[in-house]
Specification:
Rossmann fold; 18 helices; 7-stranded parallel beta sheet; 2 domains; disordered N terminus; globular; 426 residues; single chain; alpha/beta
Length: 426
């Protein structure tokens, strides 16, 4: 890093220092992994493909890519922006080095790259960090974007600053976009057209096997009907409790499983459910209980939502009744479970198109319609089951995005003359 960049980095550190200090005081959770955020990760003895994902959903998708890379002998490491995302990597790939991503400051990224020794950087979806990409370019480390996404919400913001992003995007070696629309948007922002292709959505690629449900959860949910609310927000949880009330009045009873988007809200959610005169169980304190219809189970653990969908007659995915844009609509359908979602699904338009074929997915306009559709599902559970199976079959047609992304990575490694980062595992 030259004198000018050092001076600029110092000014950035001085300017941002007070804000960072205030954030650490206001939010103690940010202190966890602070060394990693400053780039102080264990020094690696080999070069690796470095895969970076934002949070839980992206980390789960990235794990599929990591798995096939490691199976083919590549050495891989991973990073994520959030502690929950890091938990996904450490649970799914415990032998793989993983850490929190460095802050996008020149000193932090230089330290992380020097210690982590990436041979190629893979950024999942829209993790376009300018200082990280610039540092990779200075060290001639190729950068690729996998499952590239520019949502209806984010694209206008990026377009307004494309004159600032232009140099960053021109440094990217390849973009594997989710859809043709995403590919066109990357090109419009400044990625050379010949470097952009459509590889598909890593989240759509069906898993090799459905995640297994823990034995105590199997026992807890045995012989009862189940509705799952995944990645939910407060107003959506209230809507699901209203739906449970309405279903009971209509003669249907079920266990409601809630997985709040932020696990830290589990205790708050439990209090809210008890105020609604519901018996509540935290998954972490299940202790061999068998649940009965009308009770609430709150998933306050990581990594069990996908498997829990397989127990459900129908599911609702959050971030869709609130203007968030939608979370992982694919997981329940991979499990053969039809899914309900609200009108705010702009982050998952392609998925919605697939789910609407055969009725595996249904958009509800508001909380009231959510309750109506849950009752309708219980009026004909066999038809509900068939819709779920049709959805799973429709997703099978989209298998292959992981393989296409791996091929793109190998093409870039070969084109840039980078040595193959071979795993040390036997």
């Amino acid at each position: 890093m030259g004198p000018f960049r050092h001076s600029l980095a110092a000014l950035m550190a001085i300017g941002l220092g007070p804000f960072l200090a205030a954030a650490l005081v206001a939010r103690p959770k940010l202190r966890r992994g602070l060394g990693e955020r400053f780039g102080r990760i264990p020094e690696d003895s080999v070069e690796r493909i470095w895969v970076h994902a934002s949070s839980v959903g992206e980390a789960l998708a990235a794990c599929r890519l990591v798995r096939v890379l490691e199976e083919d002998g590549y050495a891989v490491r991973a990073s994520t922006t959030t502690l929950t995302g890091l938990g996904v990597f450490r649970r799914d790939r415990p032998a793989m080095p993983s850490s929190l991503a460095p802050l996008d400051h020149p000193w932090c990224v230089e330290s992380a790259i020097r210690r982590g020794r990436p041979s190629l950087s893979v950024l999942i979806e829209t993790e376009l960090w300018p200082n990280w990409i610039a540092a990779c370019a200075r060290r001639e480390i190729p950068v690729v974007v996998a499952s590239g996404r520019l949502s209806d919400r984010s694209f206008p913001r990026y377009r307004r600053i494309r004159h600032l992003l232009g140099r960053t995007l021109q440094r990217i070696d390849a973009v594997g976009a989710r859809t043709e629309v995403d590919a066109e948007r990357f090109v419009e922002l400044g990625v050379p057209e010949h470097r952009v292709c459509v590889t598909g959505d890593l989240k759509l690629d069906p898993p090799a096997a459905q995640p297994a449900l823990a034995i105590d959860l199997i026992r807890a949910l045995a012989d009862v009907s189940v509705v799952v609310g995944g990645s939910t927000y407060p107003s959506e949880e209230a809507a699901l409790l209203d739906a449970l009330d309405g279903a009971e009045k209509a003669g249907h009873a079920f266990v409601l499983v809630l997985a709040p988007r932020q696990i830290e809200r589990a205790a708050e959610l439990a209090r809210f459910c008890r105020e609604r005169r519901r018996r509540v169980h935290l998954r972490s304190r299940l202790e061999g209980r068998h649940l009965v219809p009308g009770e609430i189970l709150i998933l306050d653990t990581l990594g069990e939502l996908a498997a829990t969908y397989a127990t459900a007659s129908i599911a609702f995915v959050g971030g869709t009744l609130e203007p968030i844009g939608g979370h992982n609509l694919v997981e329940p359908v991979h499990a053969g479970c039809p899914v309900l979602f609200g009108p705010y699904f702009q982050n998952a338009r392609k998925v919605v198109e697939i789910l609407e074929v055969g009725g595996a997915g249904l958009c509800v306009s508001d909380a009231g319609e959510l309750g109506v559709e849950i009752i309708r599902a219980f009026d004909d559970l066999e038809a509900c089951r068939i819709r779920g199976e049709m959805g799973r079959e429709n997703l099978e047609a989209h298998r292959g995005s992981v393989a296409r992304t791996k091929e793109m990575i190998e093409d870039v490694l070969e084109r840039r003359g980078r040595a193959r980062p071979v795993s040390l595992a036997p």
